[in-house]
Amino acid sequence: MFSKTDMRAYWDSIGCRDDNEKQIAHQPTREGFLQSGVDNLPLIFPCGCESIPKGGTVVEIGCGKGRLVRVIAQKRRDVRVVGVDVSDRMVEMASEECKEWINTHFSVSDGTNLACLGTNTADIIYSFIVFQHMPRGAVRSTISDAARVLKPNGRLIFQVQERKEITQPDPPDTDYRSIRYYTSEMATALLSYPLSLTSTRGGGHNLFVEAQKSI
Ligand SMILES: C[S@@+](CC[C@H](N)C(=O)[O-])C[C@H]1O[C@@H](n2cnc3c(N)ncnc32)[C@H](O)[C@@H]1O
After folding, report:
1. Would 74 be classed as within a structural domain?
2. How far is the CA of 13 from the centre of ligand 1 (A)?
3. Total domain count, the chain
4. What pLDDT shows up at residue 136?
5. Cα separation, 35 vs 31, whole angstroms
6. Are strands 122-127 and 57-61 parallel, antiparallel or unpaired?
7. Ligand 1 centroid to 85 CA: how many Å?
8. Partners of 81 in the beta sheet?
9. Is residue 100 in some structural domain?
10. What transmembrane ranges does the database entry give (predicted)?
11. Would you call 196 exposed, middle or buried from its count of C-beta atoms within 10 A (0-12, 13-18, 19+)?
12. Which residues sit with their C-beta closer than 6 Å to ligand 1?
């Protein structure tokens, strides 16, 4: 069984490293880190940030240092962009990184839910390169709570790493970093009422699942 305290402590320790940008996004330089946010966003929003409802609220689960939040906030000043992360240190750094964007907000979660956010408050919730590291039970409970936070017809978009077949046993639940792979069936099975699957796209390193809240 994983420990929420240890999960937070692990990611806090990553945030405290001098090379945290390399740890977060495999980017050894500041320029590369910032550019990677711009480059990765179309993977999550293939139709562009214009697909975010006008004046809406977007939430990132596992926002890290705000690498993606800042790009959305800059492109869409009318949108409220909320970053949630299990690590206090990540949230502290994201708040500092995004301080010039007044449409950004950050909260710390316990790593298993989005209790820091209100019911029916988000138009879109997304997650990128986060669920792949999380114990499967924590992914399931987080997605279930995302359904509560989404507005009716709100959209959930998340990435996992895909394998056609899972042949290796999972890393222990107390390992907060190693990759947990998903088949496409396993990834879509993470959804339950009131979330219904709208599409899967990509694959390999970036399998995306999209769902809509049906009420
Ligand atoms: C590889 S980084 C990616 C950060 C960000 N999504 C990005 O693309 O720049 C993974 C992030 O997920 C956060 N994280 C890990 N487990 C989490 C959990 N159970 N709930 C929320 N955030 C989590 C970590 O603290 C870290 O900031």
Report:
1. yes
2. 13
3. 1
4. 97
5. 6
6. parallel
7. 6
8. 58, 104
9. yes
10. none
11. exposed
12. 7, 11, 24-25, 61-64, 67-68, 85-87, 90, 109, 111, 128-130, 133-134, 138
Residue 39, H or E segment: helix 30-44
Q: Would residue 203 count as lying in a domain?
A: yes
CATH number reported for the structural domain that contains residue 38 in this entry: 3.40.50.150
Global pTM value? 0.98
Average pLDDT value for residue range 154-178: 96
Domain hosting residue 206, numbered range: 4-42+56-213
> Tell me, what's the pLDDT at 215?
78
Angstrom distance (rounded) from CA 61 to CA 126: 6
122: closest CA among 101, 144, 98, 153? Answer: 153
Mutate to test the pocket of ligand 1, among 69, 72, 85, 134 (most ligand atoms within 8 A of CB): 85
Percentage of the chain with pLDDT > 90? Answer: 99
**Angle subtended by helix axes 4-15 and 88-97, to nearest 10:** 40
Ligand 1 site-directed mutation target among 4, 11, 108, most atoms within 8 Å of CB: 11
Domain membership of residue 51 (yes or no) is no
